[in-house]
Amino acid sequence: MAAAATARQGFRRMFSTSGSGFARPRTTLPPPKADPNPSLFVSGLSKRTTSEGLKEAFQKFGRVMHARVVTDRNSGYSRGFGFVRYETVEEAARGIEGLDGKFLDGWVIFAEYARLKYPPQQEQETAADIPPQI
C-alpha cells in the first residue's frame, strides 16, 4: 500500500506544474534592438543575391559605403544575410524604411540596424585627468 502511495506522489510530482517537479522550459527574451548607426543587417536574402545586387538595391536611399552578402565557404552561395554600411545614420534610416519587408530577387528581405561587434568606447578618465584635492 505504501508503495502505491509513493508511486502516485512520484507521478504527481512529474506532471505537476509547481516548482517541485521538472523544471519548466525557460522563455528567452529576444535580443535588444540595436541603437541607430550607419550599418544595417539585412536578412532573408536569396541564395542568388550578390554583394553588387545588394549595393544596387540600397543605393536608391543614400550613399552606400560598403555592402556584403555573407557566403558559404564551400558552395559560394549566399547564407541568406548580409550587411550594408551607409555614410550617415539618416541614410540608413531611409534604407530601412525603403526596403524592410520588400522583395529583392524574389524574396522578402528584412533590414534593421546592425548590432555593433564592439560597442564604441567612451573616454575613460585617467589619473592625470582628475584634479588633485587639496
UniProtKB/TrEMBL annotation:
GO terms for molecular function: RNA binding. Residues 38-116 form the RRM domain. Pfam families: RRM_1. Residues 16-46 are annotated as: Disordered. The keyword Lipoprotein does not apply. InterPro entries: Nucleotide-bd_a/b_plait_sf (IPR012677), RBD_domain_sf (IPR035979), RRM_dom (IPR000504). The keyword RNA-binding applies. Keywords: RNA-binding. This is Glycine-rich RNA-binding-like protein. It comes from Rhynchospora pubera.
